[in-house]
């Protein structure tokens, strides 16, 4: 297969981890005789520094003519702590999601056998957890109208949703549930929010088309609790943008490290693959960043193009590295530990 | 001391747990020679059933002329699953908060020594945790303008904040931190939300008046993760309404049961005390509801009126009941377990 893949390494640890994922993809290409072409472009704080734009036009163009995008991470404290900055790295990511119509962010959460002891949660709580989170990604309070009064003493963000925005991701979630454990849990705050009540209404209707899938409802505050008390109760979680951001980061503790969690952001035309972790600038260039989330994002990319054997091989390589303890310090308590590129090399060699 | 206390038991397990708290308060009154007068009124689903109003005028009037309010819980599934219901139990609670100006919800989270093993989290993670969450309670997306289009296919909720709303609770949080471990963590989503950027700006300014308190910032997604990875890093958490709802329910897993967490909702004129748990209708009238959160809410009520010895005695009684395993099934694994009122009786006798 021929694939044009745009590589957007971004900030902080983004470039290091993305490099390892590219190594894995190259090894796959040579092993399975595929033709993968990689083109790199700037996004985030590096793009602001170079082009004064978190998502330069060339980057967006490249993404639009590529078959898939592999994204690293963005964010830099020099912008976080400057609330009046007009240009911010996050705008690059948010604009990319919006412009490419990547409305569904899919985040698998699994408890790896070899890592059961690394989680802050007790083993019997997490063992066997297998969740797929469907987070709406181009609507809600992220993209609603934002206002600040002239004197700067009043601000507002609008959270809005339309039936179509909810239907399209709901269908993806139900189809996924049909291939999994036949359960969808809608996480919302329908006892307070009008948008949540719309979600409940629309999702109930969509559910009727999937009679073999059970639909459950959970308020987001309760969901934040249940995720820790009993994560095994979940199969597919469906939720809006902001709640999905919070709940999926929280769920990352189940796996033992956020450095393991991959995600796919898909729309009707484009697809982007990215770790759910951030840019962790404090960890950049120290060789301590865990590349597994990025490598597994590459596996999700392959699955997206139905290259299931290829994706499976990457997953196997990752599991092997975990078993052999060829892992970065976040999940490795041995002192003389392995670097980011050591993990990448192992995966490459294994393939 | 003479105190007029309004009792609003509400729905589900609300009445049972509130009864136990009242028993504790009566025991305190007789032990310390106080004059506590209790008057009960309807709120929530019961109030809708009786008066077609989740917060009847008489109830609000009673609250306004009382010195403090002890609140049970509200909510009923028959309203949750009817998204088009015009009258909902939650409106009772939300209106009460707004009308009484209860802008700060204070939620202490502690890992009780005797319950360390009950938490889904590992002992070394939670041991020593002592957090006080300051959640803004009368602003944000809870109270912003809500809209639904005529055809019902579009909905919106407005999240807004003003400088004053942020300042007043920020001062409470910093004063609390001065009496605790001198650290405030502001939880927000300043990389996306305009309101969060306003929070950061205002809280930074307030912080200058408290030079011996350190101010930290954490994005809400990261906070949801850090709460589980390392809860001991927190002292006072300050946050807006919706994030506070999610983060504090999540934090409840640290104590081993949400049935232990009390809260105080205070404003410039009124103060209300309530468990953070909900109405759990499935558990109602079975004698299995944990009354400790409500009993500890009564202790917070006493502290509010500077009755510190009295409050301390209640806390001692609770700790004793935990030590002796006189506890409801949520935190008691022995089969022949204790009922809601058994716990209340023990606390009463102890006092
Ligand atoms: C960087 C930030 C804007 C982003 C988000 O909130 O969506 C990130 O946290 C994520 O989850 O991908
Ligand atoms: C019942 C509900 C409206 C309420 C809230 O979200 O504030 C509850 O969850 C709470 O935290 O007190």
Labels describing this entry:
homodimer; 351 residues; alpha/beta; Isopropylmalate Dehydrogenase; 2 domains; 13 helices; 12 strands; 42% helix; 21% strand; binds 3-isopropylmalic acid
Any idea what the radius of gyration of chain A is? 20 Å
User: Main β-sheet of chain A, in a few words?
Assistant: 10 strands, mixed
SS element count, helices of chain A: 13
The run of helices and strands of chain A is EHEHHEHHEHEEEHEHEHEHEEHHH
Q: What is the distance, rounded to the nearest whole angstrom, between the alpha carbons of the first and last residues of chain A?
A: 18 Å
CATH class of the largest domain in chain A: Alpha Beta
Oligomer: homodimer
Architecture (CATH level 2) name of the largest domain in chain A: 3-Layer(aba) Sandwich
Mean pLDDT of chain A: 95
Shape of chain A: globular
How many structural domains of chain A?
Answer: 2
- The CATH superfamily of the largest domain in chain A appears as Isopropylmalate Dehydrogenase
Low-confidence stretches of chain A: none
Q: Remind me, CATH topology of the largest domain in chain A?
A: Isopropylmalate Dehydrogenase
- Ligands (ions, cofactors included): 3-isopropylmalic acid
What structural class do helix, strand and pairing data of chain A support?
Answer: alpha/beta
Number of strands of chain A: 12
State which percent range the strand residues of chain A make up: 15-25%
Main-sheet strand order of chain A equals 2-1-3-12-11-4-5-10-8-9
Find the biggest chain interface: A-B, 64 and 64 residues
The helical percent of chain A reads: 40-55%
Catalytic activity (chains A, B): (2R,3S)-3-isopropylmalate + NAD(+) = 4-methyl-2-oxopentanoate + CO2 + NADH
Domain Isopropylmalate dehydrogenase-like (chains A, B): 4-347
Keywords (chains A, B): Amino-acid biosynthesis, Branched-chain amino acid biosynthesis, Cytoplasm, Leucine biosynthesis, Magnesium, Manganese, Metal-binding, NAD, Oxidoreductase
Main location (chains A, B): cytoplasm
